Each structure stands twice: as structure tokens, then as C-alpha cells.
């Protein structure tokens, strides 16, 4: 694999893995999780699990690691959003 392609892939994977971290931090700080789209989180989770599976099939560690981290953050967002969801 071309080194530039490898670095672009790793960089993109890191950005994707970190993309939901600000949302998780906001939920934990404010102890509030109103107006989250569970549909979006569900579709994203399925897509991330697909990427992890693809990475396993290809034995591509950057894909496996970055998307596994994204899965963990996504699951934590779902868990804490239910915990801190206000009843209206």
C-alpha cells in the first residue's frame, strides 16, 4: 500500500473515531441528552460495525481499531442519552 494512502486512511479513521466524542462529553457534562436522533445513532452503529467486520475480513488494523473506538463512543452516547433523557 502506498504510504500516502495509509496516512490518509489512518487520519480519516482518527477523525471519524473522534467525531462523536464532543457529543458524549456534552452529555456527560450537562447530564442532559434531549433531541438526539436515535435513528441516526442506530444507522451509524450498524455502519461502524460493518466497517469493523470489513477490517477484520481484510486484517486492516487501522480500520478495526478506529471503528471499534467509534462503536464504543456510539454505544456510550446511546447509554448515557437514555440515562439522562428528561421526561417531558
Structure commentary:
Helices cover about 80% and strands about 0% of the residues. It has about 90 residues and is mainly alpha-helical. Helix 1 runs parallel beside helix 4, helix 2 packs parallel to helix 4 and helix 3 packs antiparallel against helix 4. The longest helix is centred in the last third of the chain and has 24 residues, at about 60-85. The protein starts with a helix and ends with a helix. The mean pLDDT is about 90.
Question: Summed up, what is this model?
Answer:
Helices cover 81% and strands 0% of the residues. The protein contains four helices and no strands.
What is the topological layout?
Elements: H1 3-18, H2 21-30, H3 38-58, H4 61-84
Helix pairs in contact: 1-4, 2-4, 3-4
Amino acid at each position: 500500500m502506498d504510504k500516502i494512502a495509509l496516512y490518509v486512511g489512518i487520519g480519516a479513521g482518527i477523525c471519524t473515531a473522534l467525531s462523536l466524542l464532543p457529543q458524549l462529553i456534552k452529555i456527560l457534562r450537562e447530564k442532559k441528552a434531549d433531541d438526539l436522533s436515535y435513528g441516526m445513532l442506530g444507522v451509524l452503529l450498524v455502519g461502524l460495525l460493518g466497517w469493523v467486520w470489513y477490517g477484520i475480513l481484510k486484517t486492516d488494523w487501522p480500520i478495526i481499531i478506529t471503528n471499534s473506538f467509534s462503536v464504543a463512543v456510539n454505544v456510550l452516547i446511546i447509554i448515557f442519552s437514555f440515562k439522562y433523557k428528561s421526561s417531558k
